[in-house]
C-alpha cells in the first residue's frame, strides 16, 4: 500500500514546519480578505433568528400544524449536517448525488437524541453511534467489551474530565470517515470495511486517552509505553501490571493486526505527531508562550488536532488521497479557535494555555477575530468557496455560540473588553447572547464533565491509584513524626505495580463498599501503610530499628481513632492488628518465606499454602479485619472477610508461582508439585473467596474485582 506522506513530511520537524506554514498562509490570507471574513460573519448572523427559535417552531410543526413544512425543515437540517460532516471528515465537498445518498440512507442519518444508558460505557457507545451517524456498528460487542475495560482503567480524574466522551468521539469520527468512504457500496462491503476499522478506531481512542493524561510521575508508565505503540512494529514486552498500560498494549496488537506497520507507517507517524505536539504543549510554560509568541502555541494545538484527523482518515479510507496535511491543518485551525473559546473559562481554571487564556498583547493575532477568519479561510482555500459548506459551518457555529453565550450573563462584555473585533462581530455576539424565546436552548453544550464513575466499574489497580492521593494526605496529616518517610533504602509507600499502594486501598475498598465516609478512618489507612513499610525494613534488612519505629508509629496512629470511634471498637481493632503482626502470623510467615527462598521448601502443597496464608493472606487481613471492626460490622461478617483474605492471599501467591514459570529463582508450588496442581488449587481458593463475599451485606464489587485481578494478572 503506498504511503500518503512523503519522506520529507515524515522527517524530523517537518510536521511542525507544515503547521507553521499553514498559520503563515492563514495570516497572509486573513490580512488580504477582510471582506470575505465580514461576509462569513454575516452568514453566521443570518442563522441566529432561526437558531434561537428553531425548537419551538419545529415542535409546533411536528404537532401537525404543517407536516410538509416540518419534513422540509428537517431534511434541510439533515443535509446541512451531512454536508458539514462529510466535508470535515473527508476534506472534500460531496456531489449532489452523494449528498442525496447521505441523507436518504437511514443508516447514515444523524441519530436523534435518546435517553442515554446510565453507565458510562453505554453513554459512550451512544456517542459513537451519534458521531458516526450509524444506527448499527459492526463489531459492537467487541467494542463494548474493550470500552468497558478502558472505562475501568482510566484514572478517576480523566473520567471526570470527559475522557470517555472524547474516546467515543474519536471512534465515531473514524467510523464516520469509513462510513462516508463506502457510500454507495453494498451492505456486505460496507459492513466488512467498518468491521475492519473498529479495532483501529479503538486503538486511536486509547492513544488519545493516554495523550490527554497529564505528563507527571503517576502516569510515567503510560507515557513510556505509548511511544512504543507509535513507533514499533512488534508488541511491547514486559508491560507494567497496570490496567491502562495493558489496554495500550492490547490496542497496539489490535492496530497491528488490521493495519500492519510496514504498510501503514504514515498512520503510526500521524499518531506520533499528535502525541509529540501534546507533549510540547504540556511542557510549555506561560513564560515560554509569551516569549515565543501565540502562534507557536497555536501551531502545536493545530498540529495535534490535524494529526488526529489525518490518523482518522488513514484508518477510515480505503484509498486515502495524497494531500492530507493542507486540508486537515486548515480545518483544525478553524475548529480549534471555536473549541478554545467555548472552553475558555474552564481552561483558565485548570491553567491550560490557549490563545484565549493568554493576554492579548502576547498573541500574534486576535483569537476572537481569527475564529471567524479561520472558518472563512477554510471555505475559501479548501472548499473553493462552496456556499453549501459555508452555510453548514456557519449554522453549526452560530448554534454553538448562541448556546454558549445564552448561559453566561455578562460574558459578551468580558469578550468585547478583551478582544479587538469588527463591528459585525460585535453585533453577532450581542445578538447571540440574547435569551432564546420560550427557553428554546436545552443544555446541549454541557461542561464536558461526566457523572462520577460507579466504584464497581473501576479496575482495582486504578482505584488504588486514584486513592493514593487520599493515602498520601493521610500519611502527611497523621504520620508526621512517626517514621513515615522510612529509613534510607526503604520505600515510604508500598506500591503494588506502578500506580498505587494496595494495602491501604483494600481498606478503602471495604469502606467504599460499606458506603461510609473514609475520612474518620484516615489514621488507620496511614497506619496500614506504616505497618507494611515497617515489614519491608525487616525484610530488606535496611534497618531493624527503623522498622520497629514504623510499626510503633502505626500503633500510635491507631490510638487516635478513639476520637472518632467507640473505644471498644478501637481496642478490638488494635488487638486484632497485634495478633496479625505478631509472632504467630506475619512474623512467622516472613521467617518461613525467607526459608522458602533459601530452598528449604515444604514437602507437600499444604506446606506451601501455609506460607502463603501467613504472608499474603495476613497482609490482606491486616487491611480488612481491623477496618471491619472499626466500622462495626457484625462478627460473622468480620469472619467472612477473614476467610476472603485467607483465600485471596493464596490465590495471589499461587498466581505468582504460575507466572514465574520453571525458571523461578526460588521453589514454588508450581515447580514442586506441577502447574496442574497449582491451577487446581488457585481455582478452589478463588471459589471459596467468592463464596465468602456472597455472605456480606455490603457492596463487594471492588473486592471481587481485586480477587479477579489476583487470579488472572499477567505480571
Explain what the structure shows.
Helix content is about 70%, strand content about 0%. The protein has helices at about 5-10, 15-30, 35-65, 65-90, 95-105, 120-130, 140-155, 155-160, 165-180, 185-210, 220-230, 245-260, 265-285, 285-290, 295-315, 325-340, 345-350, 365-380, 385-405, 410-420, 425-430, 460-480, 500-515, 520-540, 545-560, 565-580, 585-595, 605-630, 635-660, 670-675, 675-695, 700-710. Helix 4 packs across helix 9 and helix 6 (about 120-130) crosses helix 7 (about 140-155). Mean pLDDT is about 80; it is low at about 1-10, about 110-115, about 440-450 and about 480-500.
How would you concisely characterize the structure shown here?
The protein has 715 residues and is mostly helical. The chain has 32 helices and no strands.
Summary keywords:
mainly alpha; 715 residues
What is the mean pLDDT? 82
Instruction: Report the sheet with the most strands, covering strand number, pairing sense and barrel closure.
Output: none
CA radius of gyration is: 30 Å
Structural class: mainly alpha
Q: What percentage of the residues does DSSP assign to strands (E)?
A: under 5%
Q: Which regions contain 5 or more consecutive residues with pLDDT less than 50?
A: 1-10, 112-116, 438-450, 482-499
The DSSP helix count reads: 32
- Sum up the overall morphology in one term: elongated
- Helical amount: over 70%
Count of β-strands? 0
Distance between the termini: 37 Å
